[in-house]
Every structure is written in structure tokens, then in C-alpha cells.
């Protein structure tokens, strides 16, 4: 990678790139949000069920869904609260979650617009099955997609000269994503890419303004404290949040390595629906490649074709996050089979950003004129 980390990226002036003179800077983002949210909402009859869709809508589970001690409240507190507020406002779960998904979809499009306006990036990202979490989806992944995109966006922006983004901002985005859903914690190592740079063939500590990493550490500590706040309000709840965060049969969520291990784990399941296969079996590989192809059909093609153009170190956070996403999809078990497409679509978001960005020339180290985000 280049000794000049962000040679292919230019700091994006907000609102620039295609706006006519006299238009306010927020005109296109506002129009994009409203039109995108409307389209996602109108498409709700074509929504695709997810792993927990039946659980969330079954009469026997509806009351349990809103209990504070339930897994959703602890594992995905912000996503749970967003869905709850839309549900209460709409008076109907399906309508409320459709509104919530459409709202998040509009925000997702605005963030993608501010990140990059290249058709390659948009096609790679929106060509994923991840897009369908915004379309009347009876699950909690729409806010997760928004916060993860914000996190990846700030990781890349932090490596742009003059962007003003520091590790503190990226850590805040990570904290927000984590409080939305704990799967964001898997992508935390990508934050460390901001700590190092390669200069004249050697790695060294990347210089940042004084206190940048100290503030980032404070953000991470605050994230953990806020995560435990509901439990601390009721000391009896500490057991629940520690169970969800650090246990919840965590090892049982890993794809079983042997048939005997799978039988043991299935015997512990209350439903018998989990642990459909063991690691490396044809069914496991079919799920793995199936999820990858469904969530990154164009991103994979673009990355395979343009990976040699990736010369800028600004791509490093996305590379690390993409590798993490691949490993996570390989090792984590789809407990609901193919219906877990919504969960695993989150793992290929950095890959789609990387593939689209490479095709758009965002990571060409030798670019004389850094591409504007409108490119």
C-alpha cells in the first residue's frame, strides 16, 4: 500500500457535486431521504421473512417481545427501542416495522450519498440482499445497517487528509453501532487500522492530534457503561445483560465442529431447530457461499476485477472489516437456516464498499486528482 494513505480520496464538501447554484446544501439529501423512504415503504408487500420474523409476529411471542429482560432488549437495545417506538406510534407491529425500515432506508441512502456518489459503489451496495432489510422486514436489522455504514464511512474518512475525522469520531460510530446491535463488536478491530501507517516501507504509529485516542477510549468505555445502564438500574438485571453480552451460550453459536458436538447442542435447544450441520459439510458450505453470493453479488465481481487498483492505505479498514465479515459468516452458525440471510448480509457491507470503491478508483494511490465523492 501507498506511503501516502489517502492519496485517492478527497475530503467531501457536504452538498457539493451536482447541486445547482442557489439550491440549499440539504436539498438533495432531503429529497433522497424522502423518496427513498417512500419507495422502501411502498415495496413492503414484497418483503422477505427473516430468521425471527415468525417469532416476532406469533401471538404467543408478541407479549414476550416487549419484555425488558428479553434477548432483543439486551442484545440490540437501540434497534429494539426504534422498532418499539414505531410500533407504538403506528398501533400495528407490521406497519410500525415497515415504517421503521423505510425510515432507516432513507438514512442509509443519505449516508451512502455523502460517502460516495459513484454508480459502482451504489450498485455494489444496493445490489445486496441487505437492501431488503428496509422493505417491510419484520426484524431489527435496518438500524444496524445504518450504523455500520456510518462506522465504515468514518473509518475511511479518518484517513483522508483534511477531513477532520479522528479515531474519536470512528469510536463514537462504533459505540452507536454496538448499542444498536452487538454484532458490531466483531468489526471493532478495523478501528485499529487508524493507529498505524506505512512510511518508506516501514510501519509506524500514525500521528493524530493530542488526545485523539484518549477520547476514543473514553467513547468505548462509555459504550460499555451505557450498555449496562438498564441492568444497573435494577441489579437483578445484571445477570441478564452479562448473560446476553458475554454468554448466551456464545460457544454454541459457533458452527459445530463434529457431529457429536452438534447433537449435544441440538439436545440443549428448546426448539430443536438449531445446529443443522457441522463445519465443512456440504450443507455448511452451501449456506456460506449462498449468503456471500446473495449479499455481495456485484461487490465480489468488482473486487475480483479491480483489486489490483487498491493501493491506498485508506482501503485498509475496509479490507480488515471484509475479512472479518467473511470469517464471521464462515464460523457463525445460521441457527434458522436460510432465513438468517438478514443477519449475514451485514457481514459483506465492507466488501461491497471496497469492491465498488476499487472500481470507482477511490483507492488508486497514484491518482493525480483525488475523485470527488460525486464520482
3D architecture notes:
- The chain is built from 17 helices and two strands.
- By secondary structure, the protein is mainly alpha-helical.
- It has one domain.
- It has a two-stranded antiparallel ribbon.
- The chain starts with 26 loop residues before the first helix and ends in a 16-residue tail after the last helix.
Helix amount: 40-55%
In what order do the strands lie side by side in the largest sheet?
1-2
- State the major sheet: 2 strands, antiparallel
Task: Note the gap between the termini.
Answer: 22 Å
Descriptive labels:
disordered N terminus, two-stranded antiparallel sheet, 17 helices, mainly alpha, 375 residues
Element layout with pairings:
Elements: H1 27-42, H2 53-57, H3 59-65, H4 71-75, H5 77-90, H6 93-115, H7 119-126, H8 142-158, H9 167-180, E1 196-199, E2 202-205, H10 212-233, H11 238-247, H12 259-268, H13 282-295, H14 297-306, H15 316-331, H16 341-344, H17 349-359
Antiparallel strand pairs: 1-2
Helix pairs in contact: 1-6, 5-6, 6-8, 7-14, 7-17, 8-9, 9-10, 10-11, 14-17, 15-17
Concise overview:
The protein is an all-alpha fold and 375 residues long. The chain contains 17 helices and 2 strands.
Amino acid at each position: 500500500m501507498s506511503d501516502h494513505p489517502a492519496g485517492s480520496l478527497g475530503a467531501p464538501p457536504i452538498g457539493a457535486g451536482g447541486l445547482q447554484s442557489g439550491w440549499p446544501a440539504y436539498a438533495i439529501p432531503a429529497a433522497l431521504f424522502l423518496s427513498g423512504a417512500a419507495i422502501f415503504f411502498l415495496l413492503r408487500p414484497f418483503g422477505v421473512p427473516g430468521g425471527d420474523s415468525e417469532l416476532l409476529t406469533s401471538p404467543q411471542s408478541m407479549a414476550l417481545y416487549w419484555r425488558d429482560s428479553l434477548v432483543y432488549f439486551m442484545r440490540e437495545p437501540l434497534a429494539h427501542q426504534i422498532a418499539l417506538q414505531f410500533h407504538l406510534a403506528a398501533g400495528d407491529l407490521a406497519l410500525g416495522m415497515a415504517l421503521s425500515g423505510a425510515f432507516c432506508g432513507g438514512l442509509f441512502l443519505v449516508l451512502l450519498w455523502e460517502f460516495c456518489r459513484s454508480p459502482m459503489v451504489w450498485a455494489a451496495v444496493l445490489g445486496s440482499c441487505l437492501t431488503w432489510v428496509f422493505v417491510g422486514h419484520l426484524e431489527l436489522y435496518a438500524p444496524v445497517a445504518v450504523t455500520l455504514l456510518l462506522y465504515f464511512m468514518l473509518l475511511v474518512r479518518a484517513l483522508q487528509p483534511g477531513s477532520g475525522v479522528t479515531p474519536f469520531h470512528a469510536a463514537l460510530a462504533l459505540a452507536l453501532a454496538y448499542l444498536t446491535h452487538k454484532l458490531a463488536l466483531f468489526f471493532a478491530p478495523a478501528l485499529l487500522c487508524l493507529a498505524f501507517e506505512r512510511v518508506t516501507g516501514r510501519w509506524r504509529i500514525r500521528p493524530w492530534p493530542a488526545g485523539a485516542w484518549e477520547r476514543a477510549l473514553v467513547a468505548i468505555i462509555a459504550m460499555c457503561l451505557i450498555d449496562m445502564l438498564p441492568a444497573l438500574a435494577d441489579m437483578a438485571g445484571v445477570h441478564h445483560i452479562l448473560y446476553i453480552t458475554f454468554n448466551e451460550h456464545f460457544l454454541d453459536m459457533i458452527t459445530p465442529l463434529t457431529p457429536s458436538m452438534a447433537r449435544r447442542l441440538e439436545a440443549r435447544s428448546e426448539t430443536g431447530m438449531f445446529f443443522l450441520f457441522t463445519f465443512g459439510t456440504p450443507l455448511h458450505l452451501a449456506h456460506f457461499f449462498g449468503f456471500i453470493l446473495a449479499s455481495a453479488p456485484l461487490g465480489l465481481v468488482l473486487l475480483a476485477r479491480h483489486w489490483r487498483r487498491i493501493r491506498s492505505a485508506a482501503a485498509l479498514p475496509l479490507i480488515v472489516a471484509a475479512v472479518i465479515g467473511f470469517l464471521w459468516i464462515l464460523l457463525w452458525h445460521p441457527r434458522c437456516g436460510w432465513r438468517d440471510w438478514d443477519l449475514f448480509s451485514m457481514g459483506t457491507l465492507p466488501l461491497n464498499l471496497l469492491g465498488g470503491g476499487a472500481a470507482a478508483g477511490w483507492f488508486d494511490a497514484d491518482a493525480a486528482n483525488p475523485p470527488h465523492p460525486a464520482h
